Amino acid sequence: MHISITDNTKKRFHFSCAIRGLKMSQVVVDLIEQWLKNNDVAVSGVEEDELVK
């Protein structure tokens, strides 16, 4: 996955993660999972891993 963000946003995010001892990738994964929990559309009878095939 690749995303485009400004250099300033990346630097701020990197710094905020670093001072908390967190990896940026894990914070992104956590944010995506939180977003999906709040916004995901249930697909009846389909396993989660089947959606990405």
Strand content: under 5%
Q: What spatial form do the alpha-carbon principal axes imply?
A: elongated
Major sheet: size, sense and barrel closure?
none
Taking the alpha carbons of the first and last residues, their distance comes to 15 Å
Radius of gyration: 15 Å
Number of strand segments: 0
Which residue ranges are poorly predicted, with pLDDT under 50 across at least 5 consecutive positions? none
Order of helices and strands: HH
Total domains: 1
Count, helices: 2
Provide the structure class.
Answer: mainly alpha
Helix content: 40-55%
Write the layout of secondary structure elements.
Elements: H1 7-19, H2 24-39
Tell me what the structure shows.
- There is one protein chain.
- The protein has 53 residues and is mainly alpha-helical.
- The protein has one domain.
- The protein contains 2 helices and no strands.
- It has helices at 7-19, 24-39.
- The protein starts with 6 loop residues before the first helix and ends in a 14-residue tail after the last helix.
- The model has no long low-confidence stretch (mean pLDDT 88).
